[in-house]
Prior knowledge:
Layout: H1 3-17, E1 30-35, E2 40-48, E3 55-63, H2 66-84, H3 91-105, H4 115-118, H5 134-154
Antiparallel strand pairs: 1-2, 2-3
Helix pairs in contact: 1-2, 2-5, 3-5
The structure holds zinc ion.
Amino acid sequence: MSGLEQLYQQIIMDHSKSPHGYGLTEGDVTSHQRNPVCGDEVTLALRWSADGTRVEEVAWEGSGCSISQASASLFATLAAEDADAGNAWTPDDLQAFIDEFREALRSRGQIPLDEERFGDAAALSGVSKFVARVKCAMLAWVAAEDLLTRRAAEA
Ligand code: ZN
């Protein structure tokens, strides 16, 4: 295993052990996603700015394998870091992240996640070599996409 792969594995372990963004509240609009193959579950909420234009926080709860839980945690961390930096996501920004993530994860190791954009979540790049685990890593991102789609339908 290369040094980079070891670092990535450590990041995934850390996030599965002490997840970020964990905890939903009553007012959250959530999407519940299951990966029956692995037994993973993620319920995720996007918390929008007061004017409803930007994602200020990603919150979630779930259970399952370390990849599914670490991916949700890394997704929440990425949202928080961008919001803290003054770059809270618009719906288009979020959709772009989801599309890039999906493309990389389905690439069977051909397209790594861009570390400049994805930060620690780039640690999930290696999952794309394991086709059976791609759904685990996608779960939180699929939940976010579901929320975006529902939101667009209501607007
Ligand atoms: Zn899993």
